[in-house]
Design goal:
By secondary structure, the protein is mainly α. It has 14 helices and six strands. It has helices spanning 3-14, 16-38, 51-54, 70-85, 89-104, 132-135, 138-149, 160-168, 176-179, 182-194, 239-242, 280-297, 310-319, 353-361; strands spanning 268-270, 277-279, 302-305, 337-341, 367-368, 384-387. Helix 2 (16-38) packs parallel to helix 4 (70-85), helix 4 runs antiparallel to helix 5 (89-104) and helix 5 (89-104) packs across helix 8.
Length: 392
């Protein structure tokens, strides 16, 4: 941490009274550090550049900054300052504040719980994280958190709550405990961007095409290029797509009130191919399409993958970062996509028999090959097809 920022951090955390006096100055200093390292503010003076913050949230609670006590505000500002000093930008600041809100309510507590009696500080870090003195120092604890965050390959492209979960390893494998505080964290960081009055400039429109990227490297049907994140220049996790709104209002597959990759098996239907699940209307049409193919080819359509849970999406993203979709955005996670193969489970190509039959016949069953996966689009995947023909 830079010496100047370190002095501000120590001063703000010294006592609650001092924190109340200095928190506004610390907030603005901390956000200035972020602006200098990550672009910070739009050129038009609007909001934070990070698309996950501008598209901020699936509910309106992310618009108004929650009321924080002086201690909480000072601790949030420390986290933002450390993120800024490290050059990690606004996204990391939001992940850090979200995690501390979840673990300690942004309070520097000196006790743990039944599951972790040695847990201490803003992030409830245990003995294996480092000395108690470091864990009880808000700046030190934030540094330990960001040390581990930076070891996660591609953390910027993960849903913020999944990135937090991979650092903290909480009892909630899906990171839902952290997701519950995402909007509050966005609002808190926006408050810092807007100044002491809590103004939230450019609070964010999830359908704003200027902030939208195609987050689904394996395809979301929006027709945008995953390599072109738009005006923002930030290829990170796209909150708009996650919340079900894409460019120009095109839906990203959300249905039934479920979250991507967290759809219960009871809401899905099995395919005629063993071990595969899809949304029930998609499953019905896939089975009919496979039967029609079998009538002319002598065997059903070869399929390798259908619905993917969020945990599977995270694993595949780690294993194949250039091929797998950002976890929480793939149409596989909405149970509306399949990966297919040729007879004998050989790879499907753009000139192989099953692909050619699908191109001629799949539309009649509501299935389509997405534009991003077509030849010459930079992410050619002849085997990936998506259901576009109905509603749940």
């Amino acid at each position: 941490m830079k010496r100047t920022s370190r002095r501000l951090v120590i001063a703000a955390c010294a006592t609650p009274t001092v924190a109340a006096v200095l928190v506004v100055a610390l907030v603005m200093t901390a956000f200035a550090a972020l602006a200098s390292t990550s672009g910070g503010i739009d050129s038009d003076g609007g909001g934070v550049v990070d698309p996950a913050i501008r598209s901020a949230a699936c509910s309106p609670t992310g618009v108004a900054a929650p009321g924080l006590t002086p201690d909480q505000a000072a601790n949030a500002a420390v986290i933002v300052a450390v993120a800024g000093d490290r050059g990690l930008g606004v996204r990391a600041a939001v992940v850090g504040v979200m995690t501390a809100l979840t673990e300690s309510s942004l309070l520097n507590i000196d006790y743990g719980d039944h599951g972790g009696p040695d847990s201490r500080g803003l992030f409830q870090q245990r003995d294996s994280w480092g000395p108690v003195a470091v864990r009880m120092d808000p700046a030190g604890a934030a540094g330990l958190f960001f040390d581990r965050l930076e070891t996660i390959d591609g953390w910027q492209q993960l849903p913020p709550w999944i990135a937090a979960q991979q650092v903290q390893h909480s009892a909630f494998a899906d990171g839902s405990n952290y997701a519950a505080h995402y909007n509050a964290a966005v609002a808190a960081v926006r408050r810092m961007a807007g100044g002491a009055d809590g103004a939230t400039p450019n609070a964010g429109d999830p359908t704003d095409a200027s902030t939208s990227a195609d987050p689904d490297i394996a395809g979301n049907g929006t027709g945008t290029s995953a390599a072109d994140p738009g005006a923002v220049g930030d290829p990170g996790f796209d909150m708009a797509a996650f919340c079900g709104s894409g460019i120009g209002g095109v839906t990203a597959g959300g249905w039934g009130g479920y979250s991507n990759g967290l759809i219960p098996a009871t809401a899905l239907c099995p395919l005629s191919a063993a071990g595969q699940l899809l949304r029930c209307d998609a499953a019905t049409e896939w089975d009919a399409m496979s039967a029609a193919y079998q009538a002319v080819a002598g065997s059903p359509i070869c399929i390798t993958d259908s619905y993917r849970s969020l945990a599977v999406q995270v694993r595949l993203r780690a294993e194949k970062p250039t091929l797998a979709a950002v976890p929480g955005t793939s149409n596989h996670g909405w149970a509306l996509a399949v990966d297919m193969c040729e007879a004998g489970r050989t790879a499907m190509g753009f000139t192989t028999p099953t692909y050619l039959w699908l191109k001629a016949n799949a539309a009649a069953f509501g299935w389509a090959h997405p534009a991003w996966a077509e030849p010459g689009q930079g992410q050619e995947e002849p085997w990936h097809w998506e259901y576009v023909g109905g509603t749940p």
